[in-house]
Amino acid sequence: MVNENDMKRQMTLYFVFAAAMIGLNYLIQKLNQIVVAPFICQNFGTIEFFHVFYCSTEPFDMRELIGSIFAVGITYIIKFFLDKFIVFKKTSTELKETSIEFIKYFGFAILTTIENIGIQFLLTNFLNTPLEISFIIALSIGYLTKFFLDKRYVFNINEEKIEK
Predict the structure, then answer these.
(1) CA 145/CA 157 separation, integer angstroms
(2) In a structure prediction context, what are the per-residue pLDDT tens digits for the chain, which is 164 residues long?
(3) Are 78 and 72 in contact (CB under 8 A)?
(4) How far apart are CA 7 and CA 10, in angstroms?
(5) Pair 147, 11: CB distance under 8 Å
(6) ω into residue 59 within 30 of 0, thus cis?
(7) Which of 14, 27, 81, 137 has the most CB atoms around its CB within 10 Å?
(8) Please, are residues 84 and 155 in contact by the beta-carbon 8 Å criterion?
(9) For the chain, what are the domain ranges?
(10) Cα gap 49→26, rounded to integer Å
(11) Which of 52, 22, 31 is nearest to 116 (CA)?
């Protein structure tokens, strides 16, 4: 039998860290919008590389796209280490093991993001659910799915190992 208190502790920490990463993601994107993008585009925007791949707003706002990519990348990396060492209490720091765990972690992040987008799309477009409600439902299901995938397949925490 799984120690119920340990499972509750893991889930609580997992979701608290998820909420913190959502906040950090927003902060990084706002800093990019307010500080980084104006600085880079004013000082380096005439250089073709920076203009095309960062400062351009046609046909897409590249500043927002690049800022979003950096924010997601940074928060994924931070959340991975929080989950590994604090939530699931893994102690191995071997590069090979950690690399394999990170690849699986990132793969499941992609899958659960697709799940999240799909659920939100269905709720919003077919059930006429308000965006705020569909966003919360989809995000909750996505994080719950990711928690169990990470626990079992990324960090290999089996129910039998947790017995006390």
Answers:
(1) 15
(2) 457 788 899 999 999 999 999 899 999 989 999 999 999 999 999 999 999 989 998 888 888 888 888 888 899 999 999 999 999 999 888 999 999 999 999 999 999 989 988 998 899 889 999 878 988 898 889 999 999 999 999 998 775 444 44
(3) no
(4) 5
(5) yes
(6) yes
(7) 14
(8) yes
(9) 4-162
(10) 26
(11) 22
pTM beyond 0.70, yes or no: yes
User: Could you tell me how many residues make up the chain?
Assistant: 164
Angle, nearest 10°, between helix axes 4-31 and 62-82? 150
- Among candidate residues 101, 93, 115, 117, the one with its CA nearest the CA of residue 151: 101
* d(C-alpha 158, C-alpha 152), whole Å: 6
Identity of the residue numbered 137: I
